[in-house]
Amino acid sequence: MGVLDKFRQDGKRAMVTGASRGLGRAMALALADVGADIILTGRTRDSLDATAADIRALGREAFVIEADMGVPTACERAFQTALDEFGPVDILINNVGGRLDAVPIAEQSLDSWLSLMDVNLTSCFLGTKMLGAAMIARGHGGRIINIASMNALVSNRGIGGRHYETAKAAMLQFTRAAAADWAPHRITVNAILPGLFMTDANVQWNKTRPEVIQAIVNNIPMGRSGEPEELGPLAVYLASPAASYVTGAAFVIDGGYTLW
Fold first, then answer.
1. How far apart, in whole angstroms, are the C-alpha atoms of residue 177 and residue 130?
2. Out of 164, 237, 245, 257, which one is annotated catalytic?
3. Cα 202 vs. chain centroid, distance in angstroms?
């Protein structure tokens, strides 16, 4: 087997949450491009179907689950559906999340805090728990990739919504703990910590709060934001046999923002 062959995902099935757009879509397409079939979750049927069509155009199977992964009961149903109807699942990418409500700490309601922790952290726990347990039962190993954020390490300047920093930091430590527990089962658990990527959400931020986006760009040594497709190859690596000895790691991909 050559080096490039170790990145192939032929015969594998991956589940990517929040995969109808943005980073989730980019990672789903990247995995499909190297041979994986993809299970997608998202809240909007039209965008899910569009991503599924692009995956099928690459010659792979795509399965769609319309669900709000920020609602724990709906999240559990989505993961159970994936196992019952579209499994087995070899690769899980817990991608769904977002700042969503950028209010100052002193103004954030308890309901908002709990709801957004569910989106960013509980969804990751449920997916890891349910699909990880199925991987253990199968006995063939597996890959879990949690999409945290550079904000697991640093706080963004000039913006509220600190539930996001809190949840992403907790996700990072959860990744390490799960990795330690499941290494004997040949299940690797790793985290990707993206910086500023111009997803649909950040394009919208750039329209409504351009000063926030520009402030981040001003502090990126590479002098620019990232594009979603730049994240795909890292997800492919972590999901592949090439990363068989990598677990509990945190891969920062932020153009150097956290260096200063």
1. 16
2. 164
3. 16
Residue 45 domain flag: yes
Domain that holds residue 232: 4-252
Q: How far apart are CA 124 and CA 174, in angstroms?
A: 9
- Report the C-alpha gap between 98 and 199 in whole angstroms: 11
Q: pLDDT truncated to tens, each residue of the chain (260 aa)?
A: 799 999 999 999 999 999 999 999 999 999 999 999 999 999 999 999 999 999 999 999 999 999 999 999 999 999 999 999 999 999 999 999 999 888 999 999 999 999 999 999 999 999 999 999 999 999 999 999 999 999 999 998 878 899 999 999 999 999 999 999 999 999 999 999 999 998 887 787 778 878 878 889 999 999 999 999 999 999 999 999 999 999 999 999 999 999 98
User: Is 157 a domain residue?
Assistant: yes
Q: Tally the domains of the chain.
A: 1
**C-alpha–C-alpha distance, residues 31 and 90, integer Å:** 12
CATH number for the domain that contains residue 226: 3.40.50.720
* 138: Cβ contacts below 8 Å, ≥ 6 apart: 88
Question: Within a domain: residue 257?
Answer: no
* 164 has catalytic annotation: yes
Neighbours of 73 (CB within 10 A): 10
Q: In one letter, which amino acid is 105?
A: I
Is residue 125 one of the residues assigned to a domain?
yes
In whole angstroms, what is the distance from residue 79 CA to residue 41 CA?
Answer: 9
- pTM of the complete model: 0.96
One-letter amino acid identity for 253? I
